[in-house]
Write a structure and sequence with these properties.
141 residues, three-stranded mixed β-sheet, 6 helices, GMP Synthetase, Chain A, domain 3, globular, alpha/beta
Length: 141
């Protein structure tokens, strides 16, 4: 778990997203074509909005793909949330409290999608997991 510092651009994204969604936003990761917001536990529904209207509004506003992920203090549940919408069969956590190795077991048809082109998706999962929990690495099986 590392100290999270935000750029001015990231803070602006968070402010706009909280204004439109009315959800508590804990973190934001900006990639070239997408933005991933980590919302407080229990606020994913508020963030997305009824009929996904908040999501659509933010996509139009930012001209990027927007994804909301629900935070959880439990490492395994947080990892599962990061992996949505893909089917996770098992999450195993090895190591001690200070540095864990997380292995995610997914169905063979979802494996390439969860890894993403050039490892983009798994790198985002890894980065967000390490920012919020003491995780050394995340691997897909």
């Amino acid at each position: 778990m590392s100290e999270i510092t935000f750029s001015n651009e990231t803070v602006q994204y968070i402010n706009v997203a909280s204004k439109y969604s009315k959800a508590g936003i804990k973190d934001c990761l900006v990639e070239e074509d997408r933005i991933i917001f980590v919302v407080e536990k229990g606020q994913i529904g508020i963030a997305i909005g009824s009929k996904a209207k908040n999501l659509e509004k933010l996509r139009t506003l930012f001209k990027k793909n927007v994804k909301f992920v629900e935070f959880d203090d439990d490492k395994e549940r947080f990892i599962r949330n990061l992996c949505k919408p893909y089917q996770v069969n098992n999450v195993s956590i090895e190591g001690d409290e200070n540095a864990s190795l997380v292995r995610i077991e997914v169905s063979p048809r979802d494996k390439s999608k969860i890894i993403g082109k050039g490892g983009r998706n798994i790198n985002i999962i890894r980065k967000l997991a390490q920012r919020h929990h003491p995780i050394k690495d995340v691997q897909i099986r």
